[in-house]
Design goal:
This protein is of the alpha/beta class. The protein is built from twelve helices and 15 strands. The chain has a six-stranded mixed β-sheet with strand order 2-3-1-4-5-6, with helices on both faces. A six-stranded mixed β-sheet has the order 8-9-7-10-11-12, sandwiched between helices. Strand 2 and strand 3 form a beta hairpin. The radius of gyration is 27 Å and the shape is elongated. It starts with a strand and ends in an 8-residue tail after the last strand.
């Protein structure tokens, strides 16, 4: 296991910018507004020959423990407990503030190795703050610019002895990640973070009565019954017309990026609200991107009329997604854990269907029977011939059909083929792609 390095500091000192620099990607949302980061985010950091797990944390603030900021600070405290080394960031342009001094004393009591980082040192305005930083008692500060990548060599020098003894990669390739990529999406306040905490068995994500607590998409390595899973909690998605805040737009874009790279997506609903227009928009995005979709109906224990609620959800799915019949719908209570195991079984099953391969011989026997039962139309008196079929790829199941006149085949016949494939080869709920390929007639000159 690689060592863990936590990034700690008050709001807006550049922790997320440095996090993105260390992991080599823009994973964390960065904005000039203080307090963007709320949950702690982990990533695989690399600094020259050093490899380590890096944790981005919320900005430290002195506030009541039961408030949102207080719960954010508790997440930061857990990150410090887990870390082998701490990078304590200050804003060199602003100088050392009383809040910096307060949390420097708190970090000193933690007993962890501390590296003081004076961030935003790219200009002359930072020199005064860099000199002030010596007074915090952590030795020589590292003059750094996370945004421009300045001072990383000095940071490497300071971290090397703290991470000594850990196995570091040389030129070996990293092993392929075969984890199931599972994203939890939905509207704000439907219980996504509560579900993630229930699955993990710990208070990993911030939760509370406030809507829209989660801003970043937080990926967490996890294992379910021996199967590695990369679990991603996401920010709530509202209708685009209602999103006016820049930060919410960034969060929504981050969530959509997660959907694009997921393998299975759980769309979480509130049982009392059912499947609303925004949920259908999210579900449509998932299906169009070719991801496996599972519907989770949360807060089922508090639902007054369960039969009517489930009937309305299934009816709307049938009307809105006739081309993707069989999307699994699972009822649960994320708060007390009821139905959560059933949800994960549905996720694994959806993943297996999404990965399914059908032998070519079986497909062509099926094609003969299906064409004999319902031949393609003959527009203009010329018959459209379907010659053979093969599965081009899976994830999602994608089929290529050799056809004499692809342009003449109506969409209704393609839907007929898709529904028959889904029923005859047991492919419920997963997106199916069918590509018609024109075959060349050797007796006709091009």
């Amino acid at each position: 296991m690689a060592s863990t390095v936590a990034l700690i500091g008050r709001p807006n000192v550049g922790k997320s910018t440095l996090f993105n620099r260390l992991v080599g990607r823009r994973l964390a949302i960065v904005d000039e507004m203080p307090g963007v980061t709320r949950d702690r985010r982990e990533g695989e950091g690399r600094l020259f020959d050093l490899n380590f797990c890096v944790i981005d944390t919320a900005g430290l603030e002195e506030t009541a423990a039961e408030s949102l900021e207080g719960r954010m600070r508790q997440q930061t405290e857990r990150a410090v407990e887990e870390a082998e080394a701490v990078l304590f960031l200050i804003d060199a342009r602003a100088g050392v503030t009383p809040l910096d001094e307060h949390f420097a004393n708190w970090l000193r009591r933690s007993g962890k190795p501390i590296v003081l980082v004076a961030n935003k040192c790219e200009g002359a305005a930072a020199q005064g703050g860099l000199l002030e930083a010596h007074g915090l008692g952590f030795g020589e500060p590292v003059a750094l610019s996370g945004e421009h990548g300045l001072g990383l060599d000095e940071l490497h020098e300071r971290l090397t002895p703290l991470l000594a003894g850990e196995d570091q990669d040389d030129d070996d390739e990293e092993p392929a990640d075969d984890s199931l990529q599972l994203a939890i999406v939905g509207r704000p306040n439907v219980g996504k973070s509560t579900l993630v905490n229930q699955l993990l068995g710990e208070e990993r994500m911030l939760t509370g009565p406030e809507a829209g607590i989660t801003r970043d998409s937080i990926a967490i390595p996890w294992s379910y019954k021996g199967r590695p899973i990369r679990l991603v909690d996401t920010a709530g998605l509202r209708r685009r017309a209602k999103v006016t805040d820049k930060l919410e737009r960034l969060s929504a874009a981050d969530t959509l990026r997660v959907v694009d790279f997921a393998q299975v997506v759980v769309l979480l609903l509130d049982a009392d609200l059912g499947l609303e227009k925004q949920d259908l928009t999210i579900a449509r995005r998932v299906v169009e991107e070719g991801r496996a979709l599972v519907i989770g109906v949360n807060k089922w224990d508090a639902c007054a009329d369960r039969q009517a609620a489930m009937g309305a959800i299934r009816d709307r799915l049938e009307r809105s997604f006739p081309q993707t019949r069989g999307i699994p719908v699972v009822t649960l209570s994320a708060l007390d854990g009821k139905g959560v195991d059933k949800l994960m079984k549905a996720v694994i099953s959806a993943y297996e269907v999404w990965n399914k391969r059908v032998p070519t011989a079986a497909l062509n026997r099926w094609l003969e029977e299906i064409v004999a039962a319902h031949p393609p139309p003959a527009p203009g008196g010329r018959r459209v011939r379907l010659k053979y079929i093969t599965q081009a790829r899976n994830r999602p199941p994608t089929f290529a059909v050799a056809c004499s006149r692809p342009d003449a085949l109506p969409d209704s016949y393609l839907r007929y083929l898709e529904n028959a494939l889904r029923q005859d080869f047991d492919l419920p709920g997963t997106p199916i792609r069918i590509h018609m390929r024109r075959t060349r007639n050797p007796y006709v000159e091009e």
